[in-house]
Amino acid sequence: MISLRGVFLIAKSVLIEAVRRREIYVIVLAASLLIGMVMSIDFFDIKGLTKFYRETALKVMGMATAATVIVLAARQLPREFERRTIYPLMARPISRLTFIAGKLLGVMFSAVFCFALFMLIFVFGTWRLGGEIPWGLFLQHIYLQLLMLLILATLSFWLSMLMNFDAALTVGALFYFSAAFASTVILYLYDSSGTLFRWFLLAVNYGIPQLTLFDLSGKAVHAQAWEPLSFSVMAQLTAYGLSFAVIYFAFATICFRRRPL
Amino acid sequence: MRRAVIAIIVFLALPALSSRLQPNQYKGGRSRDQQERFERNSSAVAQMLGEFRISMGDILFLKTERYLHNGMAFKAHLNQKQLLNVYDHDHNGHGAGDEHHDEHDHENLQTIIPTRAHDFRGFIGELERQVKPWQDPSEHHHEHTDGSELLPWYRVMTLADPHNVRAYIIGGYWLKNHSIDEGIRFISEGIRENPDVFELRLSLGRLYMNKAQSLMPPNSPFGALPEPNSEAERCFLKAQEAFEIAAEMGLKVRPAGWSQEAENPSEDWSIFREEDLLEAMGKAIQTGRIYRSKEHALELAERYYPLLPDPLMLRYLNQMRQLNGLDALPETP
């Protein structure tokens, strides 16, 4: 059985640890310096050019948060085993499902915390450049990014149960950074492929989460030309994202349960 | 510890060591002439780093394409020839003047994200068409943005690679809509970095002409003389000087006897470069006649025509001859 109180307690401890370790601050600071550099470039003294800033900032923020989530998620379980801190925890009346759910929630809290810091910087930067924030698309983008981070976190948990921390981190990062590229490659390859390979591409298309679907930055950057997504589309994306998150989380839990203490 | 220090020193010294590599030195960038591209590709360092910078240049140019189309990604723009064609029509005014809604150029464009009829991905394709900036190209009027938001990308391109000539030219073109002086500064920076590229001089001449026209009284016809010693006159003379320099530099690099129909046309020269050179020569003659003297214009036409015996040049030459009281030369078919 899952204990909600237990989940929140573990999640809180993960978040506190993430905040105390200052890794998030370092990532946010490094990303902010990059964004600051972009803001400091003199674009011919023309005011109100915010698309370039919006695009760069959203990309940097997205990548930095994804990197944070992959690192945090991939190390949660292996470190508990390495440090042997899992034994006293498991000695308490906490189920393994509660434990892993708490860890996942804690990682997602950390992602939200990281994103919130970035949002402050983004809003400040936009205000400083004299631009407007397209709130509808912007908030939808954040929501979809958090869904994508949930997929990444659950995948990283599962990977960390299959391989060591370094390998899980590398595979998770490779998956994230090659996702958009892979989606385009599938499209190009399909037309010139034979029947068998087409079945393979179809399987890849449906079997692997297409992370590009959670990136609304294209519309958020060119917001003057596009409307926010409809409720129906947001619901479909939510269902799509959650289905992969649930599957990966189930695999991670199964692997975790089978792992001898 | 000592090993670590030595390793760090060796690592830091690597860029210096690369200058010893043969043949040639690497000078990155995508949008330069064919000769430079050849030199770059034959460089040892280029083989290690060149592709990365070329790809970066391509990515940044594609980014400006997307900004021009409100974020939509078109497949046809990935084709280098079409990319050049669209830019030359939209940005440099080849053939289409200053018209940015030149719809016939985009009739056959396909989006990178395919239409439902051509997408095997089912609901995933459907979602992507909703999430990404996308419109069915057959159902929607193709519109371009005003181009101002593209400017930061040209600045970044030239900061990353000061030899990216096309970024200077196209950036200068867009800049003139906001500030001609900034455009002149940008092109002048391009000339400092690339002193041998005649197209930059031509762009500078165009911008000085724009500035001079803006300083003239409203509704002044083309060719109206400015007040003596005025800022407008100075700008017209600078434009004339830039056109003359562009023509001289272009004639030096143009392969002798170049023809578009030749079986093996030179890779160093394209029809766009030929058109640019003709424009530079034509404007040098025209502005020379108006703002300097008819004798000077005749001198230029007589110099240019034998070097580039184009019917347009012959027309200019005959005009200048008649203005100077000489008989026109026979026009050969």
Account of the protein in words:
- With 261 residues, chain A is mainly α.
- Chain A has one domain.
- Chain A is 79% helix and 0% strand.
- Chain A has helices at residues 4-20, 23-40, 51-82, 86-91, 96-128, 135-162, 165-191, 195-207, 217-221, 231-258.
- The mean pLDDT of chain A is 91.
- Chain B is mainly alpha-helical.
- Chain B has 2 domains: 29-149, no CATH class; 150-257 and 269-288, Tetratricopeptide repeat domain (Serine Threonine Protein Phosphatase 5, Tetratricopeptide repeat, Alpha Horseshoe), CATH 1.25.40.
- Helices cover 58% and strands 0% of the residues of chain B.
- Chain B has helices spanning 2-18, 34-41, 44-68, 80-90, 123-131, 151-160, 165-175, 180-193, 198-215, 231-253, 271-291, 294-307, 311-323.
- The chains are: A mainly alpha (261), B mainly alpha (333).
Blueprint of the fold:
The complex is a heterodimer of chains A (261) and B (333).
Chain A: H1 4-20, H2 23-40, H3 51-82, H4 86-91, H5 96-128, H6 135-162, H7 165-191, H8 195-207, H9 217-221, H10 231-258
Chain B: H1 2-18, H2 34-41, H3 44-68, H4 80-90, H5 123-131, H6 151-160, H7 165-175, H8 180-193, H9 198-215, H10 231-253, H11 271-291, H12 294-307, H13 311-323
Helix pairs in contact in B: 6-7, 7-8, 7-9, 8-9, 9-10, 10-11, 11-12, 11-13, 12-13
Taking pLDDT < 50 over at least 5 consecutive residues as the criterion, the unreliable ranges of chain B are: 17-32, 78-87, 91-104
The end-to-end distance of chain B, rounded to whole angstroms, is 81 Å
Put simply, the count of helices of chain B is: 13
Please state the CA-atom Rg of chain A, rounded to the nearest Å.
20 Å
In terms of quaternary structure, the protein is heterodimer
